[in-house]
């Protein structure tokens, strides 16, 4: 796979003190996505066609809503809603036909798990309407490039492996993505060393964070009330973000 390599953002993320450099990069990509979808993409016919077809997931609708540009979001939502309404009308027709078929079933054919199966087709179609997000697709493409860049840097940039070993690891989502992608771009010793380093740094840092959560809990014991919080004050936010990815933002603490 030939990809455009831009190592600067990855260096910067790895030099930032954070629980997951890929989450940090992801936040930047999503910020750019919010500006794009509420701004220039509104004027791009091809992009509008794609938005009207796919829409957005709850996470990205939320991010665009929080950005405060209600007009941009209204314009995006308006045409998407109209197209969705067309699809819903067709779907409702099928729902009615299938409900009539379900209603006419004999007792035997309504038995157990077969209850409602005549309506499965239009139900799947209805759920699929909510399963696509044009914003997610855009983020995924960019993040795949960053994952590849990390692997490229591990192999080709002399100082990067040491920096990776000193990092705080990754959230579990990005840890799994990086491990899964590694054998597609690394082989031989490079692959073995990379997996060694990544798994070690991840385990060490989960242990470290687990200790911070322990201390957070112990701080609620009155006997420890005069002890220092140490680094544990925001440990719960960092823990939930580590266990999944970017669940809670820093400014929500
Ligand atoms: Zn992450
Ligand atoms: Zn999305």
Structure description:
With 253 residues, the chain is mainly α. It has a domain at 1-19 and 149-253. It is built from 11 helices and no strands. Helix 3 (45-54) packs parallel to helix 5 (70-103), helix 5 runs antiparallel to helix 6 and helix 9 runs antiparallel to helix 10. The chain is globular, with a radius of gyration of 24 Å. The model has no long low-confidence stretch (mean pLDDT 93).
Main traits of this protein?
single chain; about 250 residues; mainly alpha; about 70% helix; about 0% strand; globular; binds zinc ion
Helix and strand layout, with pairings?
Blueprint (H helix, E strand, L loop, with lengths): L7 H8 L5 H18 L6 H10 L3 H9 L3 H34 L16 H9 L5 H23 L3 H7 L5 H14 L2 H31 L16 H9 L10
This protein binds zinc ion (2 copies).
The site of one zinc ion has 8 residues, from helix 2 and helix 9.
> Which bin fits the share of residues in helices?
55-70%
Cα radius of gyration in angstroms? 24 Å
The end-to-end span amounts to 40 Å
Q: What's the SSE pattern?
A: HHHHHHHHHHH
What ligands can be seen in this structure? zinc ion
Structural class: mainly alpha
- How many strands, what sense, and barrel or not for the largest sheet? none
Pick out the low-confidence regions.
none
Shape: globular
Strand content: under 5%
| pLDDT averaged residue by residue | 93
Give the tally of β-strands. 0
Number of helices: 11
């Amino acid at each position: 796979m030939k990809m455009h390599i831009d190592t600067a953002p990855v260096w910067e993320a790895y030099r930032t003190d954070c629980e997951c450099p890929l989450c940090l990069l992801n936040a930047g990509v999503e910020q750019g996505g919010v500006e794009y979808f509420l701004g220039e993409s509104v004027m791009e016919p091809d992009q509008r066609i794609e938005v009207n077809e796919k829409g957005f997931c709850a996470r990205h609708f939320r991010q665009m809503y929080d950005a405060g540009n209600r007009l941009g979001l209204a314009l995006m939502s308006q045409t998407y809603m109209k197209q969705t309404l067309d699809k819903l009308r067709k779907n409702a027709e099928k729902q009615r036909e299938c409900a009539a078929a379900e209603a006419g079933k004999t007792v035997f054919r309504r038995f157990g798990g077969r209850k409602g199966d005549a309506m499965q087709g239009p139900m799947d179609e209805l759920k699929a309407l909510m399963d696509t997000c044009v914003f997610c697709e855009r983020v995924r493409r960019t993040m795949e490039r960053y994952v590849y860049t990390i692997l490229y840097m591990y192999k080709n940039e002399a100082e990067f492996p040491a920096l990776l070993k000193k990092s705080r690891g990754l959230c579990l989502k990005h840890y799994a993505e990086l491990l899964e992608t590694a054998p597609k771009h690394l082989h031989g010793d490079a692959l073995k060393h990379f997996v060694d380093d990544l798994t070690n740094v991840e385990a060490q840092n989960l242990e470290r964070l687990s200790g911070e959560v322990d201390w957070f809990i112990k701080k609620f014991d009155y006997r420890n009330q005069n002890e220092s919080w140490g680094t544990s004050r925001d440990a719960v936010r960092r823990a939930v973000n580590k266990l999944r990815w970017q669940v809670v933002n820093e400014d929500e603490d």
